[in-house]
Structures are given as structure tokens and as C-alpha cells.
Amino acid sequence: MNEPVRILGVPTDYGASRRGVDMGPSAIRYAELGAALRAMGLEPTDAGDLSVPRAEGRDPGRADAKYLPVVESVCTRLADRVRETLSAGGTPLVLGGDHSIAIGSLAGATHDADVGVLWFDAHGDFNTPTTTPSGNVHGMALAAALGRGEFGELDWARAPGLDPSRVALVGVRDLDAGEQAALRGSDVHAYTMSDIDDRGVTAVVADAVDAASGGDGVHVSLDLDWLEPTEAPGVGTPVRGGVTYREAHAALERVATDATVRSLELVEVNPILDDHNATGELAVELAASALGKRIL
Description:
Keywords: Arginine metabolism, Hydrolase, Manganese, Metal-binding. The protein is of the alpha/beta class. The protein contains ten helices and eight strands. Helix 6 (177-184) links the parallel strand 5 and strand 6 (189-192).
């Protein structure tokens, strides 16, 4: 990867149910993200953070899709920034914030491009306002980008041209009943933690990369709750039984080797819940692996 990396922070937390994830971009930067990328020979530039309305004092609006107008505002602007970065020959590295920002990342990454998606997450993020048990939009991001349910009527949410057969979920282990049914009826490739247990992480990731690759490359969306909570304690929705530290690196190293990474996002780092910024530091390490860092 020779093109410069452009860092875009999106300090949101209204898409989630726990406060603090809006400080994720600062935590990842504090873990010396820029220095880590420069040490790899990359050319990072930090474009700062998007201006994001605070949730305090705001009415969440509808209970089945909380703060949706604010999500629209932020994701529309993020899509523009991602699209501009790609048009200029750069690689967007988006720092969240809660996972609702992926709606904007994907809208920008897929603009006038044939892009697949690798989604590393404990959760499916495949709910819609009809199926959600919480109303939190971070649990709907992938469904929104694919235009499922009422999101199909929202031009700002749908990622143009995104083909569900080119989307691969890796390591999911906590799915709501509505998500289970929706995923079974979709063309999305869903690889669970049981698949990783049975076959090993590199074999599963190889299949996921095969499914997502082609065209102009892949968008990689990495929710830090994908990892075992003892490895990544600073996340808002931890789920036991995730991947280990070494499995996570092996997975992202395989992505860097076998796929063309067009854009990358790191989400759901919550420093309030973290232990000495361990999760922020892990996010930096995994970003480096996804962008090509090797042991030797």
C-alpha cells in the first residue's frame, strides 16, 4: 500500500446504549497511531474529528431507531469525507465512535466503486427498526448499508451497489432472533465463532476474503468487541468467547496479504471501561496488521 492514509475521527456515542465510546478516537490516537503507521513506511495525515452533536439534552426521538436524524447528519458528512479521501488516492482510516458510523463509511467507500465488506464483530448489526430489541442504531449499521427494511427508502443510509453476497461477517457470537432469521434468508456470508473453533481463524478468514474480494477492493470494519473481553476490556457491549490477541492479528494479517484494503474503520473503543488504554493500544496494533505490518 503506497497511497497515504488519512485518519478521520468520528466521536459518536448516540448509536450505542453506554456512554464513553465518543472518546474512542482520542484513545486510539493517544496510543500513538500515527507513529505506528509511520514506522511501517506509510504516510498518515490526521484530518481531525468530524463535528458531532452531543447526546446530552437531546430527545432520542423514536424508540425503535434512537437519534436517527443525528446519525443521518454525521454519516452523510462522513461519507463525503471518505469519498473525497478515496478520490484523492488516499486510504481512509476511520476511528469511532459507535458502530453506527459504518453507515457513512460504507456509503463513501462504495460510491462509484465495486466494493466488498469484511465485518469483524461479536454482533451481526443486522437489525432493523422492526426487529431491534434496543433501538440502538449501532446494531443496525450493516442492515442499513444493505438497504434492509425501511432503510431501503433512505438514500443516505444505503451503500450504493453493495452486494450482500460480497459481505462477510466474521466471528459473530451474539445475534438477536430477528437477526438470525434475516441472516439465514440473506446472501451475506456469516462465519460464527463456532466456525473459527472448528476450522481455525485463518481458514475462516480466507473464505471470508474470497467472498468479499474482487472489484475495487474491500472495506474492513473492525469492532473491538470482536475480541475476548479480557483482551479488549474497553468496549461497550462485551461478549465472552471472542478471538484471542494472536487470532486477531493472524486474521488481519491474512486480510492484508490476500485482500485489497480500500478503507478501514475501528469502532466501539470505550476508554471509560478500559484498563490503561489497553483496547486503544490493541486497536492501533490491529490497524497496523490490516495495513500490512508483519513480524518479519
